[in-house]
Design brief:
The chain is built from five helices and no strands. The protein is mainly α. The protein has one domain.
Length: about 80
């Protein structure tokens, strides 16, 4: 990763940490973590066929889809927790 990208990420994190909206954002994410996790899981799974057909071989060879499906099925259980 180039210095430009690292500096941009550091700047974004600094601005985020100073934002007066941060507590509200944290509360929203905490209160909606299960729904967010489920939606992200569905979105990632929907993208897997396109990724599998691409040159991104690491996704095909390391069981990425199976890990996402396993996590997604756990996140839909009533006793699951967001780690």
């Amino acid at each position: 990763m180039s210095d430009y990208h690292i500096d941009a990420l550091k700047g974004a994190l600094k601005r985020l940490s100073e934002s007066p909206f941060l507590p509200a954002a944290v509360r929203y994410l905490a209160n909606n973590a299960a729904a967010i996790s489920a939606e992200l899981g569905k979105t990632v799974l929907a993208e897997i066929p396109a990724l599998s057909a691409s040159a991104t071989t690491c996704l095909r060879h390391h069981g990425f889809r199976q890990r996402i499906e396993k996590h997604h099925s756990r996140s839909n259980s009533p006793t699951s927790r967001i780690a």
